[in-house]
UniProtKB/TrEMBL annotation:
It comes from Paenibacillus xylanilyticus. The gene is argH. This is Argininosuccinate lyase. Its EC number is 4.3.2.1. CDD domains: Argininosuccinate_lyase. One of its GO terms (molecular function) is argininosuccinate lyase activity. Keywords: Amino-acid biosynthesis, Arginine biosynthesis, Lyase.
Length: 464
């Protein structure tokens, strides 16, 4: 509120809408205002709201002329500007914390380029990949979420000031100047839209809701992988909770909190969109005082989970040997066996798929792992369908059911091959580096607003 007051005053003086000496008296009152006292004061029924309380305090300090601070403005355009200023701060903070999480994910992935895991589709074992390949996918999803939050920031960071109640003013104000002073990227062109539109809040809520949903899916995987039955991950002691009765327990409550908090963030964001639905297009409490706290809480919660997960990943331990053994003994590699038969035997993929499916069924019925597959079994299965001699060698058979070979041969763009994952992580780092630079610039601009405004006002006062 005080930043808006200062920017509006500077503009009024520069446009010569109020006399210089009057502007200086108002500036002196503003700079003398006990802001911290106001910030901690309780509501009093003697004034309607904080706006009028500030106006009352300014008049006590500077006299009746301080009432001209309200020339060419309304609580409508002022309030929306304040909401947008608060929201852009929260969006900026969430983006910065999301970038921190992305760095942690990239660092974690770089340590697990060669860590074999079994990927799942439909909750069933599918194909071998690497932990880095999985984390790289999570990073790509997070990157899109951060870009959506950045887009929401751009939609939010527009000034409503100068719209007044909804029709602007007959005074020769400069809407562009107040926007510049408050580090807005521009103005909301239509004055009616400036005080009535709420899509800036809806856009931020939508971005926050999607971000919470996407990250929650990943956290669900992490919780599964932390189970003793799965045994793939171990959360550091700092992020677990013991049982009050069962001595063996290491409950990964940090991840459980992350999951529930993300659900909370999603719920608050959904409330924002629900409160906007079927409201009239105008200056209304629904999309202002009552709705804003849900949006702020959603972003605050999302930002806190970003920070929490960033810390967890820095100390997360992986049972690489168990995950590798599980991959080596599973049937997840047999897609490559089918591909190999296409290459060596000249079969169609559908023929090859059918042959390998029968082999898997045969091994499963006898409880034999994939390592028990013999060349003779493959020969019999192929001849049963095609009656051609087998060109496949024992060495090629061993290779075709190796999870390491499975991963290495998949060097198509976006695949799990270590070199390709290295490339993908490097590309992520470059793209996110640009977003980090943008984020640092935004933080710098927002932090400089108060100082720049005070510098102008103090310069006025020092020259009198």
């Amino acid at each position: 509120m005080m930043a808006v007051n200062k920017a509006h005053l500077i503009m009024l003086r520069e446009q010569r809408i109020i006399p210089e000496q009057e502007a200086i008296r108002i500036a002196s009152a503003i700079q003398s205002l006990p802001v911290n006292k106001l910030r901690t004061s309780e509501y009093s029924s003697s004034v309607e709201d904080l706006f009028f309380q500030v106006e009352y305090e300014l008049e006590k300090l500077g006299g009746e002329c301080t009432g001209n601070l309200h020339v060419a403005r309304s609580r409508n355009d002022m309030g929306i500007a304040m909401y947008r200023m608060v929201l852009r701060e929260k969006l900026s903070t969430a983006i910065a914390s999301g970038l921190s999480l992305h760095r942690s994910l990239r660092n974690f992935a770089s340590r697990h380029i060669h860590t074999l895991i079994i990927a799942h589709t439909h909750t069933q074992q599918a194909q071998p990949t690497t932990l880095a390949h999985y984390i790289c996918a999570v990073g790509d999803s997070l990157e899109r979420d951060l870009q959506r939050l950045k887009t929401a920031y751009a939609g939010c960071n527009r000034s409503s000031l100068g719209a007044a109640a909804l029709t602007t003013s007959g005074f020769p104000i400069s809407r562009e100047r107040t926007a510049e002073l408050l580090a807005f990227e521009g103005i909301i062109e239509n004055a009616y839209d400036a005080v009535s539109g709420a899509d800036y809040a809806g856009e931020a809520a939508s971005a926050a809701q999607l971000a919470a949903v996407h990250l929650g899916r990943h956290v669900q995987d992490l919780l599964l992988w932390c189970t003793q039955e799965y045994g793939g991950l171990l959360v550091a002691a700092s992020y677990v909770q013991i049982s009050s009765i069962m001595p063996q327990k290491r409950n990964p409550v940090s991840l459980e909190h992350a999951r529930s908090l993300l659900s909370s963030a999603k719920g608050d964001a959904a409330t924002v969109l629900g409160m906007m639905h079927n409201t009239p297009f105008g200056d209304i409490v629904d999309t202002e005082d009552d709705m804003q706290p849900y949006l702020w809480r959603s972003l605050n919660t999302l930002e806190s989970v970003y920070r929490l997960l960033s810390e967890i990943f820095q100390s997360l331990r992986v049972n690489e040997a168990l995950l590798r053994e599980r991959a080596e003994n599973s049937f997840a590699t047999v897609t490559e066996l089918a591909d190999t038969l296409v290459r060596t035997e000249g079969l169609s993929f559908r023929q090859s798929h059918s042959i390998v499916s029968r082999l898997v069924t045969q091994l499963t019925e006898f409880g034999t792992p994939i390592s028990g597959l013999t060349l003779e079994m493959v020969q019999a299965a192929v001849q049963n369908m095609t009656n051609i001699p087998l060109a496949l060698t024992r060495e090629k058979l061993r290779e075709s059911i190796s999870p390491r070979h499975f991963v290495n041969i998949r060097h198509v763009r976006g695949g799990p091959n270590p070199d390709e994952v290295h490339r993908a992580l490097s590309s992520q780092a470059i793209r996110l580096g640009e977003l980090e630079e943008w984020s640092r610039d935004v933080v710098c601009r927002l932090r400089s607003v108060e100082g720049n405004l005070d510098h102008i006002l103090n310069d006025w006062l020092n020259r009198t």
